Amino acid sequence: MIITSRDNPNVKRIAKLTKRSEAKKEGLIYLEGTRLCEEALSSGQKTEEVIVTEDKISWAKEFTPGTEPLVLSKDVFSKISQTVNPQGVAIVIEEPGLASDIPAKDDGKDIYAVLENIQDPGNLGTIIRMADAFGLTAVIISPSTCDPFNDKVIRATMGSVWHIPVVRKTMDECFDFFARSKTETLAMHLKGTELGTGELKLPCAFFIGNEGDGLTEETSSRCSKLVKIPMKGKAESLNAAVAASVIGYELSKLL
Amino acid sequence: MIITSRDNPNVKRIAKLTKRSEAKKEGLIYLEGTRLCEEALSSGQKTEEVIVTEDKISWAKEFTPGTEPLVLSKDVFSKISQTVNPQGVAIVIEEPGLASDIPAKDDGKDIYAVLENIQDPGNLGTIIRMADAFGLTAVIISPSTCDPFNDKVIRATMGSVWHIPVVRKTMDECFDFFARSKTETLAMHLKGTELGTGELKLPCAFFIGNEGDGLTEETSSRCSKLVKIPMKGKAESLNAAVAASVIGYELSKLL
Question: Which H or E run includes B159?
Answer without folding.
Answer: none
